[in-house]
Amino acid sequence: MSRTDRASRVIAAPPATVYGALLDRESLEAWLPPDGMRGRVERWNPRPGGGFRMILTYLDSTDSPGKTSEATDVVDVGFADLVPPECVVQRAVFEADDPSYAGTMTMTWRLAAVGDGTEVTVTATDVPPGIGQADHEAGIASSLANLASYVEAAS
Predict the structure, then answer these.
(1) By the 8 A CB rule, do 122 and 144 touch?
(2) Which of 65, 76, 79, 115 is most buried, by CB atoms within 10 Å?
(3) What domain of life does the native source organism fall in (predicted)?
């Protein structure tokens, strides 16, 4: 059974600015890791058919064991579609021995101009069953809050 998780947020920045933060390596490292994690991009190719590999490290893995190792989640992300400044579609695969994290999750980031800002809606489909829905939606919301702080500070 396929599962879909969602989160959205209005960000006080134009769609082009938000889109730029989705496709800039240093920006992504700064805002994508949810609270309690830090991230490092190992490989970067921001074009359709390209992608990136991110190492996410838990600052405290006591209550949140990693999927790849005790303290890390490693994810390979491919860019399936890029429509500036409206949409970024990513296909994410976690490195994990546990089959409950197997499969390809699709993350669709939709950007829509609203008033003086951008409504960002993230839809994750085919979420691996090992990822708890409440935790995943909280993680997406945390990344969106980080994205808002990041781009609003630059605007």
Answers:
(1) yes
(2) 79
(3) Bacteria
Write the CATH number for 25.
3.30.530.20
Instruction: Give pTM, 2 decimals.
Output: 0.93
User: Does 47 reside within a domain?
Assistant: no
Question: What is the domain range of residue 143?
Answer: 4-33+79-154
Radius of gyration of the chain (CA): 15
| Residue 101 resides in a domain | yes
Q: Are 11 and 118 in contact (CB under 8 A)?
A: yes
For the residues of 34-48, what is the DSSP string, one character each?
PTTEEEEEEEEE-ST
* Local confidence pLDDT in tens for the 155 residues of the chain: 589 999 999 999 999 999 999 999 999 999 999 988 999 999 999 999 999 999 999 888 776 667 877 788 899 999 999 999 999 999 999 999 899 999 999 999 999 999 999 999 999 999 999 999 999 999 999 999 999 999 999 87
